[in-house]
Each structure stands twice: as structure tokens, then as C-alpha cells.
Amino acid sequence: MCYFGYFLFFMDCDFPWINQHITDDPTRLSLRFGSQRAADILQIECRRRFGTKLRHTLALNPQFIFPSALAGEQSTSDALAAFHASLISDGEQVADLTAGLGIDAMAIARKTHIVTIDLDLAKVDALRINARLIPNLSTICDDCRHWLQLQPASSFSTLFIDPARRAANGGRVYALSDCEPDVTAMLPELRRVANRLIIKASPMLDIAHTLSLLPEAVSVIALGTTTECKELVIICDFSTAAPSEPEINAVTIASDGSVISQIQFTKSEELSAQIATADPLPGLWLYQPYPAVMKAAPMRLLSSRFPAQKLSPQSHIWLSSELIPDFPGHAYRVEQVIPCSSRTLKQLANQRIKASITTSNFPMTADQLRTRLRASDGPHRLFASTDSAGSRILIFTSPFIPTPSL
Predict the structure, then answer these.
(1) How far apart are CA 406 and CA 403, in angstroms?
(2) Contact 187, 213 (CB under 8 A)
(3) Are β-strands 137-141 and 114-118 bridged in parallel, bridged antiparallel, or unpaired?
(4) C-alpha span between 104 and 101 (Å, rounded)
(5) String of DSSP letters for 239-304
(6) Cα 84 to Cα 216: distance, rounded to the nearest angstrom
(7) Cα distances (Å, whole numbers) of residue 10 to 31, 37, 130, 268, 389
(8) How far, in Å, CA of 331 to CA of 327, rounded?
(9) Rounded CA gap, 218 and 241, in Å?
(10) What is the DSSP track for 103-128?
(11) Radius of gyration of the chain from its Cα atoms, rounded to whole angstroms
């Protein structure tokens, strides 16, 4: 499709019709209307699939255009975009080298001017339409590697890049060198053009190995929600001498992008911290760190930063006698602790318990134990682990529910 073909295809979306059929099944609409309503049906499908993730974007722009379902799937969420924008200062000169759907760029454009680059003409056209009322955002269709070569030295404060994590065959890739574009190969040009680089990377990456590939990295952020680690955000500063140790951050955000918890440390601080252990007893508080904390892995430091003790050095479960409101994780009240044996598991299976299950330092996965117990989800949570004496135990808990503020 030619340039004007894409642009007119998106501009021709019939939003009164879209709103009229917003709750209809897109598959049935396609069978009924075919290609004549392809652009409109695509917008309905994407709003059904990504309406929660992009609730704020769609509220600000009800006629937001999705160029494809894949673009919506690969896009960042409004919450993550709000956090990314918080890393940018007012007045910076910023370029997003892999703009995609442009959610990050539009969030940053509320603070400062940003140039967006993307090789996909359909995405570029959609972003031009979606950002036509945003004066701080300009869009270029080009390969960012070629575009960088045309830029003067030190022309940007910050470059932002989110390499595609799909191989040519459609499979998932994670290593920076396997993503497209390869950030590690671009480092000389990136250093020449900007003072700072912000990389969004897969949460599957090993933090230590990834930092070893980026000598100017000053910080890595494990960024997630209370249920999932979403990504690693790596910040490289080309304007100063490399630090002796990059700072590691675990940041957990709410649905609006606000920070729920944050813990910062270096690898040396983690290695030098002392581990304190405690036995689980009814009435104690039990904590399960948020996923971003688990990824950043300050497993020794948590006991020195908070008045909590680990169940054992290898079990990622913490305990305290008093509730710790700011502990970076989910809190539960211990109700019962029983030794784990084949006989115990058989007895529990006969009871058909209703509880979510978590395992840590235990010979079975949560799914395997759930099957063994014939358990179904319920309001309580069962933690299966190994204590400091090496004994396998089952800890039954109830979740902490904060009292709403008056």
C-alpha cells in the first residue's frame, strides 16, 4: 500500500459506526461486512483487546487509530509510559528510535519535544494521525540506524529505544544482540549523537550479563506491576565516566503509573548484607516480594532494609512479628503451619482445599502441588517451602486487606 493509501485507509475510519458496533464480535462483523469495513472492524477488535492497557490514551483520544492488532499487542501500556516519561526532564531534546504505536512518545511529548522514528510506514501514518494535535511530537519514517548517521554530534539529550523482540520467523528473542535493531552494534553512533540512552529490554534477560554488554550503564530498573515484571529499563550515560557499579532498582507501579514501591541497591551492597532467618508461626506476617523485586534479587538486603527475616537462606519468603506497611511485596497473615509429608498431602487432597498456591525452595512447582492436592483457587494462599532446618513445610495464610482511608 502506498503512503497515501495507508493515510487515507486510517483517516477513513467511521467512528460513529465503530461506536455503534463496539460490543459486537469482530469475527462476525468481518463475515458480514468483509473488506469494506476492515479498518473499522480492526479498531473494534483492538479496543476490545487493549482497552484496559490503553484506557488513558483512548480516553484522551476516542478516535485513536490502531494500525494493526500486532501494534497494539507490542505497545507499552499507559502505566509504563507514564513511568518512562518520568525519566525525562522538561526541555530535553529526545528521540524515540523505535516509536511503534507511539504511547511512550505521546507521554513524553507532554513534557518536552520528541522526534519519533519508525521503519513501519503504517505505524508512522497512524502516529501522525493520533498525534496531529500534539505540537511537541514530530514523526519520521526511516530505519533509525540510517537516521542516526545523518544527525550532528551531541544533538540529543536522550535517545529512547525499544528493540523488537521477534525474530524474522516470528519467534521470541530476548538477548539485545538478537533483537532488531541490535543496540550493542549501534553503541558508537548512539554515543556520538546523544548524552544518554534509555533501553527497554525483556525481563527475561540476565541483569549482570546485560550490564556487561553496556559499559556506560549507570542504572537498570526492573519495572513491573504487583503481579508481573514487565521489562528491564537500562539507562546509559555517555557524558560521564562509567560508574564502578551500576545501580539496580526494583520499581513496582500502579495502574496509573504511580510508584507503589521502590528499592535501590548495588551488587556489592547485596553481597555484603547479612541474612537473618525465622521460623514461621501462626500470627506472624508473611511477605512475598513483588515480581520486579524478585527479578532485581535484593534477597539478602531485604532483611537489612526492613525488620523482616527470611524463612531460610534459599526460600524467598520473609516473616515479621509486626506488619511492615512499606515492604515491597504482598503481605499475608500466617494461620497454620504443618509439616509436609506424603501422608499430609493425601489428607489435604481428600479435603479438596480452596487456596492459591505458591512454592519456593520446594521440590514441586505450584502447578504440580495443586494437582497433587486437587486444590482449587480460593481466598487463602498456601506457601510450600523449606525452613532453615531443612524441613519441608506448608504454611496456610490469609491475605492482608488494607483498611480504606477515611
Answers:
(1) 9
(2) no
(3) parallel
(4) 8
(5) SSPPPSS-EEEEEEE-TTS-EEEEEEE-HHHHHHPPP-B----TT-EEEEE-HHHHHH--TTHHHH
(6) 19
(7) 21, 11, 10, 53, 64
(8) 8
(9) 10
(10) HHHHHHTTTS-EEEEES-HHHHHHHH
(11) 25
Cell 496531529: give the residue: 132
Collapsing DSSP states into helix, strand and coil, what is residue 189?
Answer: helix
Return the C-alpha cell found at 80: 509504563
Q: So what's the pLDDT on residue 400?
A: 77
Instruction: Give the CA dihedral 8, 9, 11, 17, nearest 10 degrees.
Output: 140
337, 394 in Cβ contact below 8 A?
yes
| Element housing 83 (H / E) | helix 78-86
**What is the Cα 80 distance to its own chain's centre?**
7
Grid cell listed for 218: 549507570
Residue type, 175: A
Query: Cα–Cα distance between 52 and 38 in angstroms, integer?
Result: 23
Write out the three cell numbers for 19.
Answer: 461506536
Distance CA 126, CA 118 (A): 11
Identify the pLDDT of residue 2. Answer: 45
Helix (H, G, I), strand (E, B) or coil at 130: helix
Report pLDDT digits (tens) over 242-262. Answer: 788 999 999 999 988 999 999
- How far CA 300 is from CA of 76, 221, 274, 313, 385, in Å, comes to 32, 18, 6, 8, 18
Tell me the pLDDT tens digit for each residue of 288-323: 999 999 999 999 999 999 999 999 999 999 999 999
Cα 280–Cα 282–Cα 286 angle in degrees, nearest 5: 55
The answer to whether the beta carbons of residues 223 and 192 sit under 8 Å apart is no
Residues of the chain with pLDDT under 50: 1-5, 403-406
390, amino acid identity: G
Q: Return the residue matching grid coordinates 544533538.
A: 155
Buried b / exposed e over 140-164, threshold 16 CB at 10 Å, is ebeebeebbeebeeeebbbbbbbbe
Place of cell 526460600: 315
Could you report how far apart the first and last alpha carbons of the chain are, in Å?
A: 57
